[in-house]
Amino acid sequence: MSNATRDALLRWIDVRGGVVRTTAAQDAGHSRHRIADAERAGDLVRVRRGWVALPSADSFLIAAARAGVVLTCVTQAARRGLWVHGHGDATRPHVAAPSHAGRVCARDATVHWSAPVVPRHPDRLEDGIENTLVAVARCQPWEEALAVWESALRQGQTTREEMARLPLPSQAQRLCREARLFADSGLETIVPARLRWLKLPLLPQAWLLGRPVDLLIGDRLVLQIDGGHHVGAQRSSDIEHDARLLLHGYHVIRVTYAQVMDDWLTVQQLIAGAVAQGLHLAR
Fold first, then answer.
1. What is the C-alpha to C-alpha distance for residues 75 and 136, in angstroms, rounded to an integer?
2. Which pairs count as long-range contacts for 4-10, CB under 8 Å and 24+ apart, including other chains?
3. Buried b vs exposed e over 135-147: b needs ≥16 C-beta within 10 Å?
4. What's the CA gap between 46 and 54, in Å, rounded?
5. pTM (2 d.p.)
6. Tens digit of pLDDT for each residue in 217-229?
7. Cα(57)–Cα(65) distance, rounded to whole angstroms?
8. What is d(CA 156, CA 150) in angstroms, rounded to the nearest whole number?
9. d(CA 98, CA 70)
10. How far apart are CA 171 and CA 189, in angstroms?
11. Among the listed residues 119, 108, 210, the one whose alpha carbon sits nearest the alpha carbon of residue 166
12. pLDDT for 247
């Protein structure tokens, strides 16, 4: 096999994610003999019968091809750059199996068996955004699913109108109705959703004294949520801004991301106690 012929084959596979069906390569004009030569030379590896991959290919795609499944739900959402709590649970990927499949060899994975709302091409190893969001709706807690949906809408990966035209299951229909376009992060979805019972104005990213705050509750109560980047100069700047807010009559509750996600009852009690004292009201 000439270098030019080999390079053309490898480029064709690389453009398609590095993992392909051999029949697709043959349909594109790359002969079975050429593919076999590339395997013998170590330029390709055999994933399973009918599938080959570049040695440098994405390990998730290789694993999906080997198991005969498709990456979906929070795993695929995270791969698409959407906000996902826990970054898609990389230790236990979520995959979809064809409804007609028998036993699936996807150890240590969460397998979704439901039929896709958008038909999957047999060569695909990753779900599109529509199937990904529907899988999230079926699988994840309401607040976390809502955060993923809002992240997709905010990034323009789909629209509410496009999703609404699909045959969505009931939970996905509700998410489609309630997802907002202007939440800047998953926490800006989750926290207001948890505080709606207060029946108070909740304004994420309110601009106060020259900077945005994470959430303004009522007129004067500010909730700030520290992530992992709130250290060093950022931390000093946050403390200085908190002090200026206090001097201007605001009341600040500052908590961590971990507290919001893992100890919400404590955070909720702090906020409820402040509201009971009227600290959310302009005086």
1. 10
2. 5/34, 6/34, 6/37, 6/38, 6/41, 6/43, 9/34, 9/35, 9/38, 10/38, 10/43, 10/44, 10/54
3. bbbebbeebbbbb
4. 9
5. 0.80
6. 999 999 999 876 6
7. 11
8. 10
9. 9
10. 17
11. 119
12. 94
CB atoms within 10 A of CB 63: 19
- Give pLDDT, residue 199: 95
Q: Residues 119-157: pLDDT tens digits?
A: 999 999 999 999 999 999 999 999 999 999 999 999 999
Least confident of 45-49, 104-108, 191-195: 104-108
Both tokens of residue 222? 């500010």
**Amino acid code (one letter) for 49:** R
Task: Output the pLDDT for position 183.
Answer: 64
Residue pair 66/35 in contact (Cβ under 8 Å)? The answer is no
Q: Give per-residue pLDDT as tens, 13-49.
A: 999 999 999 999 999 999 999 999 999 999 999 999 9
Q: Rounded to whole angstroms, how far apart are CA atoms 134 and 145?
A: 9
Residue 60 tokens read as: 């998730």
